[in-house]
Write a structure and sequence with these properties.
Layout (H helix, E strand, L loop, with lengths): L1 H7 L4 H19 L5 E9 L10 E8 L2 E6 L7 E4 L2 E7 L13 E7 L2 E7 L4 H5 L15
Antiparallel strand pairs: 1-2, 1-7, 2-3, 3-4, 5-6, 6-7
Length: about 140
């Protein structure tokens, strides 16, 4: 249906195929980057450019103390968020975030007067905390 609509509008099928191939290649390249993790992100308190108060799925990775977040579905133009510290870690409420396994983890991160939350699979918790996982990071781990 969408392909027929685009064809009526004059978009060639090869352009559509090239765009889809580019998106899939970008997704594959991101997943192969060291430290990449899938999850969801939102602003809990304050304001962060490029991020909003609703959960937005995507992929993240750390470069020093900067979180590089690529928003789904296209994963282009990553948002770069410098992080000051890790406030706390908790288990996600039932139904709070979807498609992240049986027991997702939510991590609160402080950045320039705002607080963002990252939800990820329990197995990817250490990747999501990144360089803040050291003993001096002040994380309050949610033990189950």
């Amino acid at each position: 249906m969408i392909i027929a609509l685009l064809a009526v509008l004059g978009v060639d099928l090869i352009v559509i195929v090239a765009f889809v191939a580019g998106v899939l290649a970008r997704r594959r390249w991101l997943k192969r980057q060291p430290g990449d993790f899938a999850g969801a992100i939102r602003v809990a308190d304050g304001e962060v450019k490029g991020l909003g108060p609703k959960w937005k799925r995507g992929n993240g990775r750390w470069v020093s103390n900067v979180l590089c977040w690529s928003k789904a579905p296209f994963l282009f133009r990553p948002e770069l968020v410098p992080i000051d510290g890790c406030a706390r870690e908790r288990a996600a409420e039932p139904g709070e975030v979807k498609r992240l396994g049986d027991s997702p983890v939510v991590i609160d991160l402080a950045t320039d007067g705002a607080t963002i939350e990252i939800a990820t699979r329990k197995d990817d918790r250490l990747l999501a905390v990144g360089p803040l996982s050291g003993p001096s990071a002040g994380t309050a781990s949610a033990k189950e």
